[in-house]
Write a structure and sequence with these properties.
Layout: E1 2-6, H1 10-24, E2 27-31, H2 34-43, E3 48-51, H3 60-69, E4 76-80, H4 85-93, E5 98-101, H5 106-125
Parallel strand pairs: 1-2, 1-3, 3-4, 4-5
Helix pairs in contact: 1-5
Domain Response regulatory: 2-117
InterPro entries: CheY-like_superfamily, Sig_transdc_resp-reg_receiver, ST_Response_Regulator
Keywords: Phosphoprotein
């Protein structure tokens, strides 16, 4: 299994990659922009995309819309510090697989993220 992480905060991106790989045995590629993520998705295959919402040039919802318009059906987790009902509604309307808010204890946060990844993988594997 391999996931693609997108976050414009380099420290949070590295922290996410480390937690997933070391503590949850989930291989990941990490990029700091939606543009770079699009390039990766066009040439590589991923089991899950995990994206921040608040990024320059293209936010997480615009990125989700873009990959869906390109017929990329990879499950998508919006992993964000933004706490707005409008964002959640837009995410759901555009086919997000899960929404996780970045707050609280890091171990609990990455445990929740890992659980969501595995649940998504298992649900797609049963099709």
């Amino acid at each position: 299994m391999r996931v693609l992480l997108i976050d414009d905060d380099p420290l949070f991106l590295e922290l996410s990659k480390t937690f997933l790989e070391v503590f949850h045995d989930i291989a990941s590629d990490a990029v700091d922009s939606a543009g770079e993520a699009l390039q990766k998705l066009e040439k590589d295959s991923y089991d899950v995309v995990i994206s921040d919402y608040d990024m320059p040039f293209m936010n997480g919802i615009a990125f989700l819309k873009t990959i869906r318009n390109k017929n990329i059906k990879t499950p998508f987790i919006l992993f964000t510090g933004a706490d707005k009902d409008k964002i959640i509604c837009q995410a759901m309307e555009n086919g997000v697989s899960s929404y996780i808010q970045k707050n609280g204890d890091l171990r609990a946060l990455y445990s929740e993220l890992s659980t969501q990844i595995w649940q998504i993988i298992n649900s797609y594997a049963s099709y």
